[in-house]
Amino acid sequence: MKKLFFFVAVATLTAGTMVSCGKSSKGKMDADWTIDSMTDKSTSTSGSGVTTTETTEYANGTKTTTYVSGGNTTKETATVNDAKWSIKKDGTWERTISYTEVDTTTIGGTNLIVTTNTTTIDKGNWDFLTGVGEFKKNERVSFSTLNSETTVKTTQNINSTTSTDKYTNTYLEGENTETYVISESKKKSLSLTYTGASSSTNASGNNSTTTKETLDRSFTLSSN
Asked: What is the pTM of this model?
């Protein structure tokens, strides 16, 4: 008798679950913003119970990425060169984040220094969402990415070699979209928060495993 195996995947996603207290307008959003701080934290719990967390923070000119998995912690730091977000009243936006990482390795008594400059430019459209549930009109904003370009320039001191790689992605309207809750909106300050959660269940015969993921992201912006 043949054994039958069934695969079942169930996923749910919620975004912007925090209560807003920062109703905005296109006039308030319209500015060339400086990204003063950003936090991006993703947590994944596997079916076996192992939790992995990756946290990236931009603050005071430093990018810090911390990985925690199975009791082990790894931390990487980089220098932020540029972090800005231009949001226009006509419904377009452009965000630039650039940072530099320096890694030093000693080989046979000689220091190999590798410097990596990474610049990511995202562009797209944005608009407010209508009021629904606990949210009022203009308390949430949707950013749709249409184009994303990342340039990675790597230089090493030995032989002074340099290489440049470029990665470009294009998306249809609404294909790559994030919805943020506006937690604060003033003339010269803007705070955005995104919260997402998903779970997937794989079932084979009498066995099933569930993987859960959460994503929390926030931006604090200022303008002159």
From this structure: 0.81
CB 215 within 8 A of CB 42: yes
**What region does 29 belong to: left with phi over 0, alpha with psi -120 to 50, or beta?**
alpha
State pLDDT tens for residues 146-203. Answer: 999 999 999 999 888 999 999 999 999 999 999 999 999 999 999 999 988 888 887 7
What does the alpha-carbon distance between residue 81 and residue 76 come to, in Å, rounded to a whole number?
A: 16
Domain map (residue ranges) of the chain: 14-36+83-222
Q: What is the pLDDT of residues 107-151, one digit of tens each?
A: 888 889 999 999 999 999 999 999 888 899 999 999 999 999 999
